[in-house]
TrEMBL record:
<dbReference type="GO" id="GO:0032259">
    <property type="term" value="P:methylation"/>
</dbReference>
<dbReference type="GO" id="GO:0006584">
    <property type="term" value="P:catecholamine metabolic process"/>
</dbReference>
<dbReference type="Pfam" id="PF13578">
    <property type="entry name" value="Methyltransf_24"/>
</dbReference>
<keyword id="KW-0808">Transferase</keyword>
<dbReference type="GO" id="GO:0016206">
    <property type="term" value="F:catechol O-methyltransferase activity"/>
</dbReference>
<keyword id="KW-0489">Methyltransferase</keyword>
<keyword id="KW-0949">S-adenosyl-L-methionine</keyword>
<keyword id="KW-0128">Catecholamine metabolism</keyword>
<protein>
    <recommendedName>
        <fullName>catechol O-methyltransferase</fullName>
        <ecNumber>2.1.1.6</ecNumber>
    </recommendedName>
</protein>
<dbReference type="InterPro" id="IPR002935">
    <property type="entry name" value="SAM_O-MeTrfase"/>
</dbReference>
C-alpha cells in the first residue's frame, strides 16, 4: 500500500476545472515552497495533491521509480510528452543536474497554452528555467525544433499525456530520428488507464526491450505501473 492517499477522489476534473486547479496549485507552491529549491517545490505540489485536490502529475511514489531510471541512464537530454503543471519537468531537471551538471536539458511538449504557462512559472520558481524548454503543441508538430536547436539524440522520453496517443506518438518518436541505442521510453499510467495497445506494440517491437514496474496511481491506492522500454538496434 502507498504511504498516503489524497483526501479527494482520483480522476479527471469537470471540463474547465483543471486550469483552475493548476492555478491554485501554483499559488500554493509560491506561498509554501522555497524559491530556487526544486525539492521544496515538489514537496509542495505533493502536499497540495494529498491535502487539497488530487493531481494527475506522476507524484512522489511513482516519482521514485522515475528517479531510479534517471540514475541508471544518466540522461543529458530528456523529452516529455505532456507537461501539465511542471511537476515532472522540475523533478527530471533537478535530478539530471545533480547527476550531470548544467549541460543537461529537459524539453517539455504541452498542448495546452494555459498549462504551459503554469509550467513556465513553476519551473522558473524552482530556479530551473535555463534547463527546461517548453513547447506549446504536440511532439509530432514540434520535434523538428529540437533538431533546429542542435539536438540529434534524446536519451529519455517520458509519455504522460493523452493515453490514446501513446502508441501513435511512439511511432512518431521512431520516425523522428531522435532515438539511438540505449534511448529509454518511460510510459506512465499503463495499468490504471489500460493502455493495452501501447503495451502490445512496444513489447512486440523487435527494437525495444521492456520492463513494467508496478506502483500506484498518483496520490491514491489504485494499482498502476510504469513501462520502461529501452531502444536497441
Amino acid at each position: 500500500m502507498p504511504p498516503r492517499i489524497a483526501t479527494t477522489k482520483p480522476g479527471p476534473p469537470p471540463p474547465g476545472q483543471l486550469k483552475i486547479i493548476g492555478e491554485k496549485c501554483l499559488a500554493f507552491v509560491l506561498e509554501n515552497a522555497t524559491p530556487s529549491d526544486p525539492k521544496s517545490v515538489l514537496e509542495a505540489i505533493d502536499t497540495f495533491g494529498y491535502e487539497h485536490h488530487w493531481m494527475m502529475n506522476v507524484g512522489d511514489v511513482k516519482g521514485e521509480l522515475l528517479d531510479r531510471e534517471i540514475v541508471k541512464v544518466k540522461p543529458k537530454i530528456l523529452a516529455e510528452l505532456g507537461g501539465l503543471f511542471g511537476y515532472s519537468a522540475v523533478r527530471f531537471a533537478s535530478q539530471m543536474r545533480e547527476l550531470s551538471g548544467s549541460s543537461i536539458h529537459v524539453y517539455s511538449f504541452e498542448i495546452s497554452p494555459d498549462f504551459a504557462a503554469i509550467t513556465t512559472k513553476m519551473v522558473e520558481f524552482a530556479g530551473l528555467s535555463d534547463l527546461v524548454t517548453i513547447f506549446v503543441g504536440t511532439f509530432g508538430d514540434n520535434y523538428f525544433k529540437l533538431k533546429e536547436l542542435g539536438v540529434d539524440h534524446v536519451d529519455v522520453f517520458f509519455l504522460d499525456h493523452d493515453k490514446k496517443c501513446y502508441k501513435s506518438d511512439l511511432k512518431i518518436i521512431e520516425q523522428s530520428g531522435l532515438l539511438g541505442p540505449g534511448s529509454v521510453v518511460m510510459a506512465d499510467n499503463v495499468v490504471a488507464a489500460l493502455i493495452t495497445d501501447y503495451l502490445e506494440y512496444v513489447r512486440g517491437h523487435t527494437n525495444f526491450t521492456s520492463v513494467m514496474y508496478d506502483s500506484y496511481l498518483e496520490y491514491s491506492d489504485i494499482k498502476d505501473a510504469l513501462e520502461v522500454s529501452t531502444y536497441v538496434e
